[in-house]
Prior knowledge:
The protein is 37% helix and 25% strand. The protein is of the alpha/beta class. The strands form 2 sheets. A 5-stranded mixed sheet has the order 4-3-5-2-6, with helices on both faces.
Amino acid sequence: TAAVNALSRGGFGMGAQSIYAYGALAIWRKGDSASTIAGLANSGIKSIAIANPAVAPYGAAAIDALKHAGIYDRVQSHLIQAENISQVNTYINTGTVDAALTSASTIKTLGNAGGRWNEVPDSLYSPIAQGMIVIKRTGAHDEAAGKFFAFVLSPKGRDVLVSYGYRVR
């Protein structure tokens, strides 16, 4: 949402940012065994991919969750920091790592891709707000952008977001 706020502050948006959903952090493991956040400290898990917490909201949420679960010190040496969430998903998909902390929406979009997963309790990390704003333009697309914006915020749009792993409030 930082980028969306920057657009708004810069005068590029029509109105203020709207938070349309919240991302859900998930633990994804290839193979037959799922894991809980506490289970990541299991001796069988040697590598855990996370996105760069300095720039990626899911990476920051992963660090928060590990710390709040009380296992960060035990798993810190097993963390493999990816550049972004896409690289995290590549690492787990290719078997480069034993586990990944990624977005539930990615897992649902990819159809599990041969693994098991569990959502991390949202009480363990700060909300991962997903924001949007309509960019100022003049032309035929303005009306369509407004309609799409309204759809995303509608009950039907919210149902679609939930079906893809997002949380709505």
